[in-house]
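FORM 12-B: Structure-to-Sequence Request
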């Protein structure tokens, strides 16, 4: 225990005497059985990362493969989708369309509409995204084949979000409801559009 006034005199001799007293009282320099356990606890309390932190890329690395959409009697096209893929505030959605007819069909940009909680309906704006070596639309879809397109958008705040999302592959097609748990978009949201391709892994 330090005595009051021990370090009052700021001379080398006084400092040396004070340090000698503290070392003697604390037993520094002597070996104790507890030293090893305390050192081990100190080492355990330090967390050393085993691998560098990986940041999520802007675009999804891969899209989950899904079965082709099921054809329904009387419908020329079947519409499906891959799971919603988030990344750094962006949202990615792959749209799948299957030709259920016996002849080829031409696909242009899909028509995507939204419905708000108050019942207001609107068509969302698609902004084409240039992709190297991507076939120009219309995209010809052979009978029984499936084509894939994608949309990307920035997640919107909670207010005024749409509650339903419907996709029509062509102007004459009946819109299909896209079942998504969270639609982080508004009627004013602009969607970056990735045109149709045959391979689902090539959409984004």
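FORM 12-B RESPONSE
SEQUENCE OUT:
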């Amino acid at each position: 225990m330090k005595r009051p006034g021990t370090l009052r005199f700021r001379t080398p001799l006084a400092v040396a005497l004070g340090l000698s007293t503290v070392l003697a009282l604390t037993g520094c320099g002597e070996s104790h059985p507890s030293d090893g356990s305390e050192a081990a606890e100190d080492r355990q309390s330090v967390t050393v990362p085993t691998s560098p932190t990986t940041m999520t890329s802007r675009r999804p690395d891969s899209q989950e493969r899904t079965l082709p959409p099921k054809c329904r009697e009387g419908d020329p096209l079947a519409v499906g989708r891959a799971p919603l893929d988030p990344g750094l505030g962006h949202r990615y959605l792959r749209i799948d369309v299957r030709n259920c007819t016996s002849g080829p069909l031409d696909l242009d940009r899909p028509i995507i509409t939204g419905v708000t909680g108050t019942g207001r309906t609107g068509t969302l704006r698609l902004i084409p995204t240039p992709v190297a070596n991507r076939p120009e639309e219309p995209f010809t879809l052979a009978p029984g084949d499936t084509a894939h397109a994608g949309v990307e958008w920035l997640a919107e705040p909670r207010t005024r979000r749409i509650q339903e999302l419907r996709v029509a592959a062509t102007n004459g097609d009946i819109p299909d409801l896209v079942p998504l748990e969270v639609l982080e978009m508004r009627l004013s949201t602009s969607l970056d559009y990735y045109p149709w391709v045959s391979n689902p892994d090539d959409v984004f």
